[in-house]
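Lay summary. Proteins are chains of building blocks that fold into shapes, and those shapes determine what they do. In this project we predict the shape from the chain. Here is one chain we studied, written as its sequence of building blocks.
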Amino acid sequence: MSYRYPAAERVPPVADARSAHVIVTVPTPAGLRNAPSPPADEDLELLLLIRHFELALLRLFEAGELSGTTHTCLGQEYIPVALKPLLQEDDHVFSNHRGHGHFLARHAEPHGLLAEIMGREGALCAGVGGSQHIYHRRFLSTGVQGESLPVAVGVALKLKGSGALACAYVGDGTWGEGSVYEALNMAQLWRVPLLVVVENNGIAQSTPTAAQMSGDIAARAAAFDVLHHRMTSTEVDEIRAELAPLLTVVRGDSRPLVAEFVTHRLGPHSKGDDTRPPEEIARARDHDWYARYARMFPDRFDRLDRERRELVERIAAEVAARPPSVWERR
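And here is the predicted shape, written in a compact code that computers can read:
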């Protein structure tokens, strides 16, 4: 049996989070929920770098500069940014098809990533991986739904006892894959340090989650006695305060955790195929951190926004001028 703490009682100590069958909810530190403080410059610069990088990809695609397809994380940038300081150098990160933000929050190498996507010299994987399949310094992404979780469990098994963890990003649509449940089963049986980050944006490509998922993610994690924590905030400081003690449990007690983010996909599924009705798109925009921060502190925001936009424009121009990568020349 699993337990949900009533709103007035969401104060389980970390020790309680180590018991099985618990859906973990950590109290929000006083003052953060009602009056979020502006993010630090470092966080805002990374948020804006990812935002403008993704917008640049859409422009490049429209101009015919990109091959294949590309999936942006517009609206969801704050998730990997919030996780950035919580992940250690020796952790392994497994990403998915919507992984550019995951990579940029992990490695400050926008030139190499864009070169990989564009098939230019200096590409992270010689241009072989493209937008979805990156392998670089403990970072691995895949466009195959659910593929990364079994691999992440195997890596987490190797990391057990080291203090490091494996972090795997998945979407709500991936919970239709059987490999997810096989991975969670083994992760809990083997007690491995695994963090599963669920970016639940309410739609699986073009199918609303409510039309393709029975029940909820919390109950599915509980079926395997896996810890679960659900977050609705988009504030990086608040997210970090909630997750930090739970990741201490993952690392110290070697336990898997499913961290579910209720988020919104601002852009299309991929380059331009958005089938959502206008009201759904408007609802996503209402939750966008970008517009909110622009209103909260306009002068500081405008300055940093301009700097990051100009930086991405310079990167795009410089990478586009490079010759094709070794793989592309074959």
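What the prediction tells us: Residues 42-320 form a domain with the Rossmann fold fold (CATH 3.40.50.970).
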